[in-house]
Design a protein that fits this description.
single chain, 84 residues, alpha+beta
């Protein structure tokens, strides 16, 4: 948590991948890729979010509210500007 708040865990962007279908080998389009969703109750201060594939809603968390990466980043900005 301290590394996140101090800014040591900055992320400068996801790498671009060219992913192919394992059966027929066609290049996967954006609509065919999984869109990661994040639990705001567990991921708000997690430093692994930029490299994470997201929450699978496996049932182990009691509070689950899934949001997109963009929404989570907006919430982080608001969270960091509030006094703790």
């Amino acid at each position: 948590m301290q590394a996140y708040r101090s800014g040591l865990s900055r992320f400068f962007g996801k790498p671009k991948y060219r992913l192919y279908h394992p059966v027929d080998g066609h290049l996967l389009e954006e609509g065919e890729l999984m869109v990661p969703r994040f639990n705001i109750h567990r991921c708000l201060e997690c430093t692994s979010v930029p490299t994470c594939v997201g929450c699978t809603d496996c049932g182990s968390c009691k509070q689950v509210e899934l949001v997109s990466m963009e929404r989570l980043l907006e919430m982080r900005k608001d969270y960091l500007t509030t006094d703790l």
